[in-house]
């Protein structure tokens, strides 16, 4: 797991040297679905992106890392926490509409979670040049499926 994280950092560092891009930070709140709905009522998430993009580009790509906290209300289990690490791809239409997905691996941070494949399709609209409002669906396939439907906002620097 440590090797995966170090590889991710190296790729991000090399990519930053090769291309101009923007740093983006987002936050979201969601309602758990799938297996997570049985033990959780609410989730929050934060994400950081470095998108390699050019002005008015149709497709933008970049690495992403985040944090997910599913508030568990079942027995004496701790909250379900994940660290998603992966790649993000976005298509931009009409200058304001965005759609795409984040794909990667979510590392389980809670004692009872191993982690698993992570997939998050997302749609958004740019309100200002630096603010995006978005909606997404997300699944993390651990031994159980940790899913959520989310709304959020993202700032671009």
UniProtKB/TrEMBL annotation:
Keywords: Signal. Residues 1-19 form the signal peptide. The keyword Signal applies. This is Outer membrane protein beta-barrel domain-containing protein.
């Amino acid at each position: 797991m440590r090797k995966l994280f170090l590889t991710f950092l190296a790729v991000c560092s090399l990519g930053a040297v090769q291309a101009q891009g923007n740093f983006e930070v987002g936050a979201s709140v969601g309602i758990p679905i799938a297996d997570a709905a049985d033990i959780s009522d609410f989730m929050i998430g934060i994400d950081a992106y470095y998108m390699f993009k050019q002005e008015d580009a149709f497709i933008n790509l970049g690495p992403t890392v985040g944090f997910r906290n599913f508030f568990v209300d079942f027995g004496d289990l701790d909250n379900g926490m994940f660290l998603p690490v992966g790649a993000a791809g976005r298509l931009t239409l009409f200058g304001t509409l965005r759609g795409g997905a984040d794909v990667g691996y979510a590392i389980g941070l809670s004692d009872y979670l191993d982690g698993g494949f992570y997939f998050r399709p997302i749609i958004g609209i740019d309100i200002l040049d630096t603010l995006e409002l978005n909606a997404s669906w997300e699944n993390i396939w651990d031994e159980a499926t940790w899913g959520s439907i989310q709304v959020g906002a993202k700032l671009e620097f």
